Amino acid sequence: MEILKLTETGVEAAARSAAAVLKAGGVILYPTDTLYGLGADAFSDDAVERVYALKGRDERKPLHALVSDLDMAARYGEIGDSVRQLAHALPKGKVSFIVSALPGVDGIAADGTFGFRIPDHEFCQALLSAFGAPITATSANPTGIEPAQTVPDILAQFGPGIMQIDMILDGGAAPATQPSTVIDMTAAHPVILREAAVPASDIWEVLEQFDVVHG
Question: What is the pTM of this model?
Answer without folding.
Answer: 0.91
